[in-house]
């Protein structure tokens, strides 16, 4: 086992030495990197070879919390769990004397029109510029805070080629959209991932459209045995990588994301850097990292934490990246379960409410992003998607000459501009986006 571990380390090290031969910075010398990498290897009992899937499944089988959640899903269904969860947040807010989210926001923003975002106690979008596709819930990990409850067991929830093609049509018909944001699960493990990326990039070149394609990457996927060519694929199509790394320390990452995830994440970052990602020599290959708190507290300042990440990752591993994005834990799904179990739901909601920041409303991600689920259903954001809060709109049928209100999917609209007239569906989980410096898939918003 030791020999196999060493061979992966040696391969990655060879990459680094290659890159470092051209580096003038003594702190990133190949020798220093070799020492750091080898010391990482000698302090870990993790095998970097093979898939993480079996390890994750083993953990899920022995983890009492996961077992309890699946028993409850069998008993009351996912919708029942969502209702229960919503009730717990509502009860916490009632105890705190806090009204519903939009009433609260309207009262607090009375002097600040938030750029037209608030009208008649409703929240409205500006022109959508980001099309975010959650292409499936399958993941090689099963993180304790995961708001989409992904795991290797979520094999059924996966986007079909028909839906993927309709999403590309939406992109084509929406002239203001400049970003295609692919998320999951681990989106790269979905059959449609490479299809979507290749066609979207080809389309953007042929139509001379500026298009940022984002891969929301968990990093460990880059070490999956059937993904050895993934970095090359991402580089070839100039995909921006936005990668989760909730800490620069091993213990915190492994506690939140599973044993061995930190070592694999570091190996993956070295691989990305070796390909040019996150380096000043390749500004077109962007690599951003994402931090989320390990418990019921707000993220620290994005700027300050970014400096600490840059310093520590460079010092320990010679790793470079572009930006750090900080994200607040939403009080939904696995994190809501954790809060309820610890008796901390009220405290957490109080923290979010007390730190409400009216400056965040203008930049809420639901105002410039539209989120599409693996089945084509359309939502205001990925959180609403996980809570089943689909956008409801009016559909006119010329056949029966009538207009009906219904939940919208990619089958019902031609362009994201069609959604402009519909207000955003908000609820008590939205306090997670307006606390402190604000939170979104693009990091802090204020
Ligand atoms: S890697 Fe991301 S999608 Fe997968 S379980 Fe963890 S948080 Fe969820
Ligand atoms: S959760 Fe956040 S992004 Fe989603 S609708 Fe609420 S405020 Fe908007």
From TrEMBL:
One Pfam match: DUF3641
Tagged with keyword Metal-binding: yes
Arsenosugar biosynthesis radical SAM protein ArsS-like C-terminal domain residues: 298-444
InterPro entries documented for this protein: Aldolase_TIM, ArsS-like_C, rSAM, rSAM_ArsS-like, rSAM_sf
A molecular-function term among this protein's GO annotations: metal ion binding
Keywords for this protein: Iron, Iron-sulfur, Metal-binding, S-adenosyl-L-methionine
Signal peptide, first to last residue: none
SUPFAM superfamilies, sorted: Radical SAM enzymes (SSF102114)
Membrane-crossing residue ranges in chain numbering: none
UniProt xrefs under PANTHER family: FE-S OXIDOREDUCTASE, SLR0304 PROTEIN
Protein name in the entry: Arsenosugar biosynthesis radical SAM protein ArsS-like C-terminal domain-containing protein
């Amino acid at each position: 086992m030791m020999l196999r571990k060493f061979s992966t380390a040696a391969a990655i090290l060879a990459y680094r030495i290659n890159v470092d031969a051209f580096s003038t910075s003594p702190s990133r010398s190949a020798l220093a990197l070799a020492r750091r990498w080898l010391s990482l290897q000698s302090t870990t009992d993790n095998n970097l070879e093979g898939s993480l899937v079996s390890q994750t499944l083993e953990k899920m089988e022995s983890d009492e919390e996961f077992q309890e959640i699946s028993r409850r899903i069998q008993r009351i269904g996912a919708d029942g769990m969502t209702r229960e969860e919503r009730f717990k947040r509502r009860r916490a807010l009632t105890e705190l004397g806090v009204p519903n989210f939009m009433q609260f926001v309207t009262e607090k923003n009375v002097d600040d029109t938030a750029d037209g975002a608030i009208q008649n106690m409703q929240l409205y979008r500006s022109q959508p510029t980001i099309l975010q596709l959650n292409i499936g819930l399958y993941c090689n990990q099963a993180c304790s805070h995961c708001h989409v409850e992904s795991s290797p067991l979520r094999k059924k929830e996966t986007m079909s080629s028909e839906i993927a093609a309709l999403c590309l049509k939406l992109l084509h018909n929406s002239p203001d959209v400049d970003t295609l944001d692919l998320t999951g699960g681990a989106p790269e493990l979905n059959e449609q991932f490479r299809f979507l990326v290749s066609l979207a990039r080809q389309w953007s070149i042929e139509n001379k459209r500026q298009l940022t394609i984002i891969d929301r990457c968990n990093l460990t996927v880059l070490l999956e045995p059937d993904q050895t060519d993934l970095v090359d694929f991402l580089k070839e199509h100039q995909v921006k990588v936005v990668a989760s790394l909730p800490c620069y320390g091993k213990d915190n990452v492994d506690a939140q994301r599973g044993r061995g995830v930190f070592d694999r994440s570091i190996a993956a970052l070295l691989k990305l850097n070796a390909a040019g990602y996150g380096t000043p020599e390749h500004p077109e290959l962007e690599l951003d990292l994402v931090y989320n708190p390990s418990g019921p507290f707000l993220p620290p300042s994005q700027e300050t934490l970014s400096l600490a990440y840059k310093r520590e990752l460079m010092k320990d591993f010679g790793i470079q990246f572009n930006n750090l994005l900080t994200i607040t834990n939403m009080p939904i799904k696995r994190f809501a379960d954790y809060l309820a179990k610890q008796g901390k739901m009220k405290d957490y909601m109080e923290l979010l409410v007390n730190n409400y920041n009216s400056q965040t409303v203008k930049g809420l991600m639901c105002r410039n992003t539209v989120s599409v689920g693996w089945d084509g259903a359309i939502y205001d954001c990925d959180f609403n998607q996980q809570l089943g809060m689909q956008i409801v709109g009016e559909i006119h049928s010329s056949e029966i000459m009538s207009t009906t209100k219904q939940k919208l999917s990619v089958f019902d609209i031609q362009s994201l501009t069609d959604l402009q007239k519909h207000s955003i569906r908000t609820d008590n989980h939205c306090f997670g986006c307006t606390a402190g410096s604000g939170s979104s898939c693009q990091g802090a918003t204020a």
